[in-house]
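Recap from last week: sequence in, structure out.
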Amino acid sequence: MTVESRTLFVDSVPRAYRLHRPTGNRMSGRSLVVVLHGTGGTADWAEDETGWSHTADQEGFLLVLPQGLPPNPAMPPRFLSNPPRWNDGATKPGDLLHTETDDVAFLDALLDDVLIRDGVDPHRVYLTGFSNGAGMTFRYAAERSERLAAIAPVAGYCWIREPCLTRPIPTLFIVGEADPLIPLTVGTVRLPWGNRIVERPGIWDTLRRWAAANSCDHEPHVLSESRSVTTWQFPGHVDYRVLTLAGHGHHWPGGKGQLNPRIGGIPTDTLDANARIWAFFSHGT
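Predicted structure tokens:
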């Protein structure tokens, strides 16, 4: 494998990303998968947690892991006090986690850079992310759906109240039914940042609003159901599916489960999210 660290300047601010070429430079149709970490995370931590580079080597696609900025870029990043994150539209001025960073512009510049330098097929660009990274996946798709072939947000909200896509986009969403930070229905959540208790909407609110923006039916139906995984589909002109995982907390499914269980709850190994997401990206199923 080949791993390269790159830096771009966006509005005169240095922005970093990690690029992984598959072993033997074997590329599957010059496909690109971009993976966004969650709040407090880093590109390196996301790679260690999810193992996406192993999937890239197996399947032969180019992998990019961008790095978010902390609210105070002048200070060292810290998970609790200065957590790197994406400007997904969730926060307001004065919030501990608020940032004015233009991450849509960063992802624009990143894609331009990779498409020019690495020969990626612009029709095979895929975006996924976890938690706040999932929120940024929704935001970027809402503003730049023409640049993406499909998305797969994992355990995160779409904070754009009325997303308006330039075209429908195939979407796979994955969430744990026991996620303490992303409840299935309206609930009280304790955030580790500032130890705050907040009221959060149920994730189905996000999923139904995305269905409307994606020209899909408002209500999903169950495609398949087992003891551990339920697959839902919002019928429409594009494939829009939701996987809910029984007993799974706020962790990357099939990852190492390194987030403290006091924050993220219990991980499970009932689903290999990397394999499932790549199947959706590469085959549309």
